[in-house]
Amino acid sequence: MVHQVPLTIITKIKPDSMEQLKRSLELMSKDVGSNAILPFTRFTQVHFARFVVLEESRDLNNQVIQPSLAFSSEIDAPLERYFHDLVDIAGDGLDEIYSHCVGYPSPDDRTRQNRLAYLQAHQVKVQAFYVNTINRTVPQIHQEAKLRDQIEVFADQQQAKWAWIGWNSLKVRQAIPTYLKGERSLSWSLAPVPSPSLVWRLGETIHLIGGLLLILMLGLAFLPFSPIYVAILRRKETQDAQHDRLRLSSKERDELAIREDHVVQNQFSAVGLIKPGFFRITTVRVLLWLVNFTARHIFNHGNLAGVPLLNLDGVDTIHFARWIVIDEGRRVLFMSNYDGSLESYMNDFINKVAWGLNAVFSNGVGYPKTRWLVLDGAKDEQAFKAFLRQRQMVTQVWYTAYPQLTAVNLSNNAALRAGLSKPLNPSETDAWLRRL
C-alpha cells in the first residue's frame, strides 16, 4: 500500500529572466498533460502539480523579498522515484524552466546527477500537509472510475432488456460480481484493496503514540504559563491594525479568474506575511505542527476538521492542501486542490471550520480581527474573502490527473469497489446500489 507525500521546490528567479520564464510556463499551460517541457501524464505517481511564480515583494521592514518559482506536486510515494523520473523523463524540460533560476548548472555542466542534486537541494519542508484519503493511489483512482462506468453500462443494458424485472436488491447485487468475473479486464475488482503493510501501520502507530505523548508533556509544561500566553495574545489582538480591504484591479481579477472553473476541481495558491515577533512565528509553527499531526492521523478519510461524535461537519471537497513557512519565517505559502468554485470553497471554510482558519491565519498580516485566537475573524465574511483574494497568486501551471472526479466521486467509487468483495446485509445492499 502506498501513501501520499508532498514535494515543494522553491528557487530564486534570475533578475533578467522573469518574462522568459513566464513564457515557458504559459506554453506548458496550453497542454499541461502532454506538453514537451514537463509532460505530467507520463508521471504515474502524480495526483496534482503546479508551478507558481512568487513575484518580488517586501517584508514588514521594507526589505526586498526576491522573486521565486515554486514547484509543487502531490504524489504517491516514494518521493525518490519521482525525483529520478523528473530528470529522466523531463531533463531538457527542467533545463528550460530552471535555467531561469539562480544556481542552476550552466549548459556545459548539466548532467543527470547535477539536475537531480539541484532539485533535491531546493526542496523545502512542508509544515502541514492534508490528504483527503490516505493510501488511495492514482492508478487505483483511475481503475475505480473505470469500474463504476462499466457497472453502470451493464446495469443500463440489463434494465433496457427488462432482465431485472421482479428482482430484489440482493439478487441485482449478486448479478454484478457474476458479470465482472466474466470480464477479464475487470476481474481485479473482486479482490479487496490491499491493506497497508504491517511495517507502515506499525510506523504510523508509533508516530501517533509518540506525538500524543509529546503533546501531553508539552501541554503540561505549558499549562502554568498559559495565562501569560493568553494575556499576550489578547493584548496583541486588540493592538492589531485593521488593514483596509484593498480591491484587486480588473486585470488582476481577470488573470485569476481565467485559470479557474475549467474542470470540476480548482486550485488555490496564496502567500502572506506573518505578523512580526517571536510570539507570532512560534504560534504559527506550533499550530501548523498540530494541523499536520491531526491531518495525518485523524482527518485522513475525506473530512477535514469534521468530528462526527460531536456532530461537527468538516470540509469534504479538498483533495490536498499544504502550508509552508518560507523566506526565513517571514511568510506562509498555502496551496490547495479542491472541488467547486472558489466562492463555495471559501463558504465551506467560513461555515464549517472558521475556528481553525482563525487559529492559523490570524497570525498573518491583514487578517480580520480575532478574539482568543479562534473567535470572530473569518466570521466577517466579506473581510475574510477580501483577505484571501488579495493574497491569492496566479498559478501559472496546474495539472490534475483526474479532472472530472470530485472528492465525493472518489469516495463513492472506492465504496462501490469495496462492496463487491464483502458480505452486505439488505440495508447495506440498498445503500451500495444507490451509489450507482
Describe this structure in words.
- The structure is a single chain.
- Strand 3 and strand 4 (64-65) form a beta hairpin.
- This protein has 436 residues and is α+β, with helices and mostly antiparallel strands.
- The strands form four sheets. It has a four-stranded antiparallel β-sheet with strand order 1-5-2-12, covered by helices on one side. It has a four-stranded antiparallel β-sheet with strand order 6-8-9-7.
- The chain is 45% helix and 17% strand.
- The chain contains 14 helices and twelve strands.
- Helix 2 (79-89) crosses helix 4 and helix 5 packs across helix 13.
- It has helices at 18-29, 79-89, 91-98, 112-121, 138-160, 169-181, 198-222, 226-239, 250-257, 278-297, 342-361, 381-391, 407-418, 426-433; strands at residues 4-12, 46-54, 57-58, 64-65, 68-76, 128-131, 265-273, 318-326, 331-339, 370-371, 375-376, 395-400.
- The chain has three domains: 4-124, 2-Layer Sandwich (Alpha-Beta Plaits), CATH 3.30.70.1090; 138-195 and 406-433, no CATH class; 198-400, no CATH class.
- Residues 307-312 have low confidence and may be disordered.
